[in-house]
Amino acid sequence: MDNIKQFLSVKNDAIEIQTKLSRKIKLINCCNVSDINKIAGVDLAYWKEKEEEYAVCCIVVLDRDTKEMAESQYSFGRIRIPYIPGCLAFRELPLILETVQKLNITPDLYMFDGNGYLHPRHMGIATHASFYLKKPTIGVAKSYYKINGVDFDIPSNEKNAYTDIIINGEIYGRALRTVKDVKPIFISAGNYIDLDTTTKIVCEFINKESHIPLPTRLADIATHKMRKKLQIINR
Fold first, then answer.
1. What is the pLDDT at residue 51?
2. What is the pLDDT of residue 158?
3. 76: number of Cβ within 10 Å
4. Helices 125-133 and 89-102 meet at what angle, rounded to 10?
5. Rounded Cα–Cα distance for residues 32 and 134 (Å)
6. Domain extent for 71
7. How many CB atoms lie within 10 A of CB 152?
């Protein structure tokens, strides 16, 4: 019973924080889009050791013009906050911010493997993290996070076709088909950027190797490699 009370208390506190922060979201371009050059991809991977849960965060920084990787950093550690649906950011932010501190390059924009405004309280990891990063952020999810039972309309089978995800009369994000004959991804602005610019930048980083934008794809690959390496070291 005490554990349940503690869990509910943490959940209520987390939701209250999200609700307060959501009032400060700005889905407008807060900088000149042409000045966005260094783009960071952010992802985490989890594993368990006995009864303890661990995660590794990897951040890769890419040059927008050349699409070449300029830097890569990682951090790992034990996860102390329980999983609470809709409150993932509270588990992930400590490692994300620790990894950001290791970067020698200051990114102009952060692209997350996860949601941004496409969230019940508009506070997916991309949006929540923006208040600490003070930079534009984008959420890119591989699977759809259904909100209030609302499904998405499938985009036409053409490259860069999309449909807006509208919930309660408001556009939360987009289902974007980045490659013909491949299932769509789900994108949303995080903060300090609008949805059209979000779409444009995501499409810029699609190549023939994957329908996932390069920053988050490389971050995802890096987290899986580092997780495997860390698991071997800790055996």
1. 85
2. 97
3. 21
4. 40
5. 15
6. 2-233
7. 20
Residue that the structure tokens 């971050």 belong to = 219
Q: Where are the alpha helices (DSSP H) in the chain?
A: 2-22, 89-102, 125-133, 195-204, 214-233
Cβ(170)–Cβ(150) below 8 Å: no
State if pTM tops 0.90: yes
Q: Which pLDDT value is given to residue 86?
A: 87
Return the amino acid letter for 166: I
Residue 111 gets which letter from DSSP? E
Distance of alpha carbon 11 from alpha carbon 211, whole angstroms: 35
Q: Where are any strands of DSSP class E within 23-97?
A: 38-49, 52-63, 69-78
- Residue-wise pLDDT for 40-80, tens only, equals 999 999 999 888 999 999 999 999 999 999 999 999 999 98
Average confidence (pLDDT) over 138-148: 95
Residue in the block written with tokens 């993932």:
88
Number of domains in the chain: 1
Looking at residue 65, which CATH number applies to its domain?
A: 3.30.2170.10
Residue type, 108: D
Residues 6+ apart with CB under 8 A from 235: none
Cα radius of gyration (the chain): 17
Closest among 57, 62, 54 to 43, alpha carbons compared: 57
Report how far residue 34's alpha carbon sits from residue 204's, in angstroms, rounded to the nearest whole number. 13
Question: How large is the average pLDDT for residues 92-112?
Answer: 97
